[in-house]
Amino acid sequence: MLGRLRQIGRGRAVLAALLMGIAGALFALALSWRPAIAPITPPSPGSFTPEQVARGAVLAKIGDCAVCHTRDNGRPLAGGRPLATPFGTLYSDNLTPDPETGIGTWSAAAFRRAMKDGVSRTGEHLYPALPYEHFTHVRDADLDALYAFLMMRRPVHEAAPANRLIFPLGFRPLLAGWKLLFLHHGETPTDSSRSAEWNRGAYLVEGLGHCGGCHTPRNLAGGEIRSQAYAGGIAEGWRAPPLNAANPAARKWTQEALVTYLRTGISPDHSAAAGPMGPVVDSLSQVPESEVRAIAAYIVSKMGGSPSGPVAPLPDHAEAAASRFPEGAVLFAGACAGCHGQGAPMMGQGRPLLSLATALRDTEPNSAAQAILQGIEPPVAGRGPKMPGFADALTDRQIAAVLGYARARYTDRPDWKKLPAAVAKARKEGTQP
Fold it and tell me: What's the rounded Cα separation, in Å, for the pair 357 and 409?
């Protein structure tokens, strides 16, 4: 009899646990549910003023919309670009006003919800590859201008491929939990002790510019670590350097130098734009200079303001580096010195000295390795330094030798550790979609 009672008790406990699990799952689904917003007929050209559309065009450049929403050799804003993440590959959506594959049936309210809450018109949660944790800080009037610009583009009928994510991350309701942890609403605060230009820069950088999306480290769940804002991150296998006091530049950035860099892709006293930063520069080269100056004012203040005092001499420890990295010295002389060596003709064409290169001075070798592997393309209309890639010409060990030599010769920073493994990882990341 006692055994029978124990069996009944265990059965009731199992049933209670099962019911609690079902109740929890239903609660989670209810928490994640978002209603669909009714479709509309695509707006006519007369729905928006020319001024609103023009303003939206500028905002689209500041937000780099076409960079992520245009695949290689694809139509602008038609989506389909693969975005590699630690959780699999996402494909960007079609932002043209095509009624079937784009946002042609989206109202302005549906567009604002997507940008601020990460929810599509149909109620699906959107993946944070769309950086709505930044876009949520953008004012409605600016989102409406961006919407007007997108709705006046030529429709392109092109559906994005299906995402390829590790199980169970393809289950979109899980994103509701992610947002509870990492999506923080509200406008960017205004600092009354700062200039109007600085506050404008804060609004652009923290909002549409979403600079922290690349330049802030992320946790295992893919959320930005807010306590380490602008402490450096990873973007498409490249290192996005810190934009705070830990910025590794050999010479402190000034507002003027950063404006030049953001509009041309090169600062003679700092670096040349490479990797994912190239398309950003291309976009910013097409917006009013006042907007770029505001962005630069805000970022320079985060890096500790303008320099003061005499400029320190630049290191060049050629003999010591060659004795420590003899193979790297030989490879550098054959593959690099023609452009980067002392007295090389290319150095008179605006190419920054390697002793000024941020990538060589960074705590991680990602960007320096990617620059050698993939090369560098001029970001603005083919103007600026161009460097060929050596992925097919040099092995991982040889590239590691060159990096070790260049770091030892042109900086006073400690050696990078496990360089061959780091180069192999960079090569793999550089070939991902």
Answer: 12
Beta-strand relationship, 164-165 and 82-85: unpaired
CA distance 426 to 420: 10
210 is in an annotated binding site: no
Q: Is there a binding annotation on residue 185?
A: no
Do the annotations mark residue 215 as ligand-binding? yes
The residue type at 423: V
pLDDT in tens, 97-150: 999 999 999 999 999 999 999 999 999 999 999 999 999 999 999 999 999 999
Annotated binding residue 184:
no
Q: Is 157 annotated as a binding residue?
A: no
Full-model pTM: 0.90
69 is in an annotated binding site: yes
214 is in an annotated binding site: yes
- Please tell me the distance from the alpha carbon of residue 17 to that of residue 11, in angstroms, as a whole number: 10
HSE-CB for 105 with a 13 A CA cutoff: 10
Other CB atoms within a 10 A radius of the CB of residue 345 amount to: 8
Polymer length of the chain: 433
